[in-house]
Amino acid sequence: MNYPVWDVPILGSAWVIGAIASFHVLVSHFAIGGGFYLPMAERKALREGRADWLEVIKSHSRFFMVLTAAFGTVTGVGIWFAIGLGSSEGTSTLIHNFVFGWAIEYTFFLIEVTSAMVYYYTWGRVSDRMHLTIGWIYAGSAWLSLVIINGILTFMLTPGSAWLAVAGTGEEASRFWQAFFNPTYFPSLLLRTCICITLAGIWAFITMSRIDGARQPQLKTDVMRWTAKWLIPSFVLLPLCFAWYLYSIPEASRGLLELGVKTMGQGVFTQVTRAALVTVITSATICVIVYLLAWRSALDFKFGHACALLLLAMAATASTEYTREMLRKPYVINQHMFSNGTRKSQVDAFNRDGYLTRSPWVRPEERALWQSGDSADPKVQAAHMARGELMFRGQCMSCHTVDGYRSMRRFLETRDRQAIGNILTVLHEYKDDSPYKKFMPPLTGLPEEITALGDYLNQLVHGADAKKAPAPAPVVPVPAAK
Ligand code: HEC
User: Fold this and answer.
1) Can you tell me the distance from the alpha carbon of 210 to that of 21, in angstroms, rounded to the nearest whole number?
2) 192: nearest Cα among 229, 263, 142, 227
3) Is 26 in contact with 196 (CB distance < 8 Å)?
4) CA-CA-CA-CA torsion sign (151, 441, 21, 224)
């Protein structure tokens, strides 16, 4: 409740984060995998004395530099803006816990960007050995930035018992290393490294497909086949890493996936399972295309084919990241903070003292109106609705929009005030058998606040339609704000 709510109509703030993140993942993982591809290709070409190949690598390194240094950086900063606005409370927790982690990350990042530039601009200007060394410095620093960020990313799904034991006490920083090397740290690092290597190959096809096969048939065949080989190790390792990863995630999250797979025949997919399936199908398709086109008929491999592969890779990475995010729902930091910024430890206090009681976003005169018992007064009515809206913005809007993604209007259209009230009661009671518990946080607050939310939602969905929308419940006076 300490931060304002970012209202993104139709799309919702979560999708803005998701869209920027999908693109960023595609480019940033390429920045790491490509970091290894370049010096390895260069070393091979140098050893075999292939000047024509070196020429292609140089042109790929320009593409690489522009893409990673420009788009990679801009989308990286974009993520900061988006998560800062869309998930402020969660971002604040990450910063407070990992400020030194991020400082180290930026150091590696600085070396990474600098050496990418130096690598490109020193082609033919320094000795071959020196140039290769610069390439390896780039590769090392890029991978080390993954080593760092991976700790922070995996922390959100599996903060680990040591950190959770002190969460909310102010002692969190004392568990930095336990939080960093959390249960999914190593499987995720290996998984992401595999993805980096695969993406290095897929992006390299973009440059390599443009070699004129009629003019330089030998070069194109060699380069295409060498690039295709980049996909082999990870396609063998990826399923294994994925299995290890699944083995390390919390029981409840894995259950969500298993449930979807077991009930697939009956068509009861969970969203997570659907997304995971997209990952599997797109990855398999990439495999087939690379074998049939890039390997078997390298000369016919066109720029369009490379772009199609890239689109598939984008679908695969986006659905993988989506799966990872969904596995964590309804939490932003598993078992600690819900997606709407409410901490698990705050739930009882919010139910006892009120969700909006300490909110800085309520004016004193509004509070006074809430406490008035005169529900016939239009001013009191308006304040009651505003109270419901604040509840909606604070507790629901991180995942729902009014009219677009997970639209409140669509979900509630067929429900009258009574039925809306029933859902809110289920969300508030948050019993173990509640079907919503898997993906929605508990609704917190005083009974009057929940009534206000129900009335607000009812008005939002049914407007002034009197038949569907019975008169709002009378405003109940509440105890004075503490
Ligand atoms: C952590 C994200 C999240 C938050 C926060 C959240 N929801 Fe949901 N909600 C979901 C998801 C996911 C679904 C399922 C969407 C689907 O089926 O497409 C859903 C579905 C619903 C549905 C439809 C359920 C049904 O059975 O038809 C309603 C109604 C709803 N939410 C109301 C709310 C209200 C009210 C709040 C705020 C108090 C809220 N949600 C907060 C994620 C969330």
Assistant:
1) 28
2) 142
3) no
4) positive
Task: Say if ligand 1 is within 6 A of residue 443 CB.
Answer: yes
The per-residue pLDDT of the chain, averaged, comes to 88
Q: Is ligand 1 within 6 A of the CB of residue 425?
A: no
**Among the listed residues 466, 461, 451, the one whose alpha carbon sits nearest the alpha carbon of residue 414:** 461
Regarding the beta carbon of 272 and ligand 1, being less than 6 Å apart is answered no
Ligand 1 centre and the CA of 411: distance in Å?
8
Establish whether the linkage from the previous residue to 447 is cis, with ω within 30° of 0. Answer: no
Q: Identify the residue whose tokens are 């909110």.
A: 359
CB 130 within 8 A of CB 39: no
Closest ligand 1 atom to residue 391 Cα is 38
Calculated CA dihedral for residues 245, 248, 250, 256, nearest 10 degrees: 40
Say which residues have a Cβ less than 8 Å from residue 419's Cβ, sequence separation at least 6: none
pLDDT in tens, 226-265: 999 998 887 788 888 888 888 888 777 777 666 666 665 5
Establish whether residue 328 lines the binding site of ligand 1, counting it when its CB lies within 6 angstroms of any ligand atom. Answer: no
Task: Among 401, 420, 440, 453, say which to mutate for ligand 1: greatest number of ligand atoms within 8 Å of CB.
Answer: 440
For the Cβ of 126 lying below 6 angstroms from any atom of ligand 1, the answer is no
Token code pair at residue 243 = 């299995």
C-beta of 302 in contact with ligand 1 (< 6 A): no
Residue 169 is predicted with a pLDDT of: 86
- Note the pLDDT of residue 232: 85
pLDDT-derived band at 385, boundaries 50, 70, 90: very high
CA distance linking residue 439 with residue 460, whole number of Å: 23
Structure tokens at 440: 């929605």
Please name the residue whose Cα sits nearest to atom 39 of ligand 1: 396
Q: How far apart are the first and last CA of the chain?
A: 16
Best residue among 89, 329, 398, 406 to mutate for probing ligand 1's pocket (most ligand atoms within 8 Å of CB) is: 406
Alpha carbon distance 305, 289 (integer Å): 9
* Inter-residue contact 140 to 36 (CB < 8 Å): no
Pocket flag, ligand 1, residue 426 (CB < 6 Å): no
Distance 440 CA to ligand 1 centre (A): 6
Percent of the chain with pLDDT over 90: 59
Percent of the chain, pLDDT > 70?
A: 93
Burial of 288 (0-12, 13-18, 19+ CB in 10 A): exposed
| Amino acid sitting at position 460 | L
The band of 373, judged by pLDDT with boundaries at 50, 70 and 90, is: confident
